[in-house]
Design a protein that fits this description.
The structure holds 2 protein chains of 2 kinds. By secondary structure, chain A is an alpha/beta fold. Chain A is built from 6 helices and 5 strands. Chain B contains 12 helices and 13 strands. Classes of the chains: A alpha/beta, B alpha+beta. Chain A binds chain B through residues 11, 13-14, 16-17, 20-21, 24, 63, 89-95, 111-116, and chain B through 223-224, 227-236, 238-240, 242-243, 246, 273, 277, 280, 284, 289-291, 293.
Chain lengths: 136, 444
């Protein structure tokens, strides 16, 4: 099953790597460098169905310039979009994981990503329910 | 009875009989003489008695007077010494003290009171309400304070509080009723202590503490952002190098030398990442920012997990890696991730410093309430002179091959601190050419 994945990251090389790794496995990738771009890509102006239909999964970098990534998460969740949203972050302080899951992210992946396993990890996450604050 | 004796006083008649004369007829001259002698004697005796009585009355009266004088002198002395002691006590105190009677008469106020209050000394006697009114006005307190002070004065409460004046001074007040042993209340004593300097010092300490906390917060924030900022480009370095190798594996051609270089970039990137992680961990521990998430951890599973992560390295180096769980306890209270980090560091060191064909054993055993986790190798051992530098950051021993090991040089320093954060200790026993055993002691 191929997916359409939205990669939101302000670092161009991080976007490029995620894009390349996923493309190697046959997935379609759209990228966004800012929160504004991400909003436009997920078509927040449309209804939940359109949003949910546009992507199978969102990889959302934390610490985006010009706005909190958590905001996009809440906007999507409030709209009722139940797609998996995965926090990808280079911040690795104690308690981060718990905080992200509590906020409603589907899962948390720490940077730097391992290009050998990242594709598989993302596919597994996409096949799971988004269930905010779940076991993952 | 004749007329002569009839007219005689009965007392005289008795005396006449006493001298042996007849009372019925006129006494003879001899009887008169005898009578006179008797009267004289009797009078003399009476006079003697009167004199004695008068003397004794005079003596008693003088003694009474003396006694009275003595008592008076003594009580006056006692009163004076009590007053002197009280006055000296009042004046020796560093507190301003004021004593007033239940009738609101100022009984005493010490010099310090006038110094602190700035009131004139003539208020040291007279109506307590007048003094209160002056005090309140002088201190710039609201006028209703006068009534409050008077209400406290009339009550039997003990007051311990602080009064901050508009001028910036702060006084600690202690006020208590003066009670007689039989329970009667005779007045009230109030102490004022100038605590302005103490309060100022306390505020300064508080401000310094807040500044230190803010600095620590800033440092913590700095660590968090540094962690983020360093990892982001590292992500690109490692990821791109790995991608290049992956692509090359799938047919895009790289020369052997190019492949070696790219692998070098990826490996160095990983080393740098490990270094960043260890430095940040160490910094967090040193800053007291590292918190443990304690839970019951299954010992054997933790050991197996720790060893499993190093099986590839052990196989690559042809070192046998075995786990032997012999502790009576199945679980210990620990932070799962940190315990894994400790095991990983100790086992990877053991594998790295053991030559081909050697053996690394990860064992547990109980000793009383403590659990020992041992990582024993048959490696090159550590020279006694190197032992003191074992847990010092960036002090690395040479590998059997003579190369510098691939670790960060922070592994043991970090391990020791992590163990100590758990309330445990770490020991090492080593012999050159025989092997090294690290023992982590954890309280049950």
């Amino acid at each position: 099953m191929t997916m359409h994945v939205l990669v939101v990251d302000d670092d161009p090389w991080c976007r490029r790597i995620a894009e390349r790794v996923l493309a190697r496995r046959g997935h379609q990738v759209t990228t966004a460098a800012t929160l504004g771009e991400a909003r436009a890509r997920v078509r927040l102006d449309a209804d939940a169905e359109a949003v949910a239909g546009a992507f199978d999964l969102v990889l959302l970098d934390i610490n985006l310039p010009g706005g909190s990534s958590e905001l996009l998460l809440h906007e999507l969740r409030e709209l009722g979009a139940a797609l998996p949203i995965v926090a990808v972050t280079a911040s690795a302080m104690a308690g981060d994981r718990e905080r992200f899951l509590r906020q409603g992210f589907t899962a948390y992946v720490s940077k730097p990503i391992d290009v050998r396993t990242f594709g598989e990890v993302v596919e597994r996450l996409a096949s799971e329910r988004p269930c905010p604050g779940g076991d993952r | 009875m004749t007329a002569a004796t009839e007219a005689m006083h009965p007392l005289l008649r008795r005396l006449v009989r006493k001298v042996g004369a007849s009372a019925e007829e006129a006494p003879s001259l001899a009887a008169w003489q005898a009578l006179l002698a008797l009267v004289s004697r009797t009078y003399h005796d009476a006079d003697q008695d009167r004199y004695t009585l008068e003397r004794s009355i005079e003596i008693s009266s003088r003694e009474m007077q003396g006694l009275y004088e003595e008592l008076k002198r003594r009580s006056e002395h006692e009163l004076a010494s009590s007053a002197a002691i009280l006055r000296a006590t009042l004046e020796a105190a560093n507190d301003g003290i004021i004593v007033a009677s239940s009738q609101r008469e100022v009984l005493a106020a010490n010099e310090r009171f006038f110094e602190l209050s700035g009131l004139p000394r003539e208020l040291g006697s007279g109506d307590h309400r007048v003094l209160s009114a002056r005090l309140v006005a002088h201190a710039g307190l609201p006028p209703e304070t006068v009534a409050e002070i008077d209400a406290v004065h009339a009550s039997d409460v003990t007051v311990t509080d602080e009064v901050s004046l508009p001028g910036g001074k702060t006084f600690a007040r202690f006020s208590a009723p003066v009670e007689l042993p039989d329970g009667g209340r005779v007045g009230r004593v109030t102490f004022f202590r100038d605590v302005t300097a103490e309060r100022q010092a306390r505020r300064e300490i508080e401000a310094a503490r807040e500044a230190a906390e803010a600095a620590s917060q800033a440092k913590s924030l700095f660590l968090a952002s540094m962690s983020h900022e360093l990892r982001t480009p590292l992500n690109a370095v490692i990821g791109l190098a790995d991608l290049l190798v992956l692509d090359a594996d799938e047919g895009e051609r790289l020369t052997a030398q190019q492949r070696e270089y790219v692998e070098g970039i990826a490996e160095s990137g990983r080393h740098l990442l490990a270094l960043v992680n260890d430095v940040l961990d160490l910094a967090k521990i040193e800053a007291g920012k590292q918190e443990l998430e304690l839970e019951e951890v299954a010992l054997e599973a933790a050991l197996e997990e720790g060893a499993a992560a190093l099986v590839p390295l052990a196989q690559h180096r042809d070192v046998a890696l075995v786990v032997e769980h012999a502790a009576a306890r199945s679980h210990i209270r620990a932070d799962r991730l940190r315990l894994r980090q400790v095991l990983y560091n100790l086992i990877s060191n053991a594998v790295k410093f053991t030559s081909r064909g050697g053996r690394v054993a990860v064992r547990t055993r109980s000793e009383g309430a403590r659990v020992a986790i041992e990582v024993a190798d048959t490696g090159i051992g550590i020279a006694p002179e190197d032992l003191p530098r074992l847990y010092v950051a960036f002090e690395q021993m040479a590998l059997p091959s003579g190369d510098r090991p691939a670790g960060t040089g922070l592994g043991l320093a970090l391990t020791k601190r992590l163990v100590e954060m758990h309330g445990g200790t770490i020991d090492v026993a080593s012999r050159r050419g025989v092997g090294t055993t690290f023992t982590v002691w954890m309280e049950g």
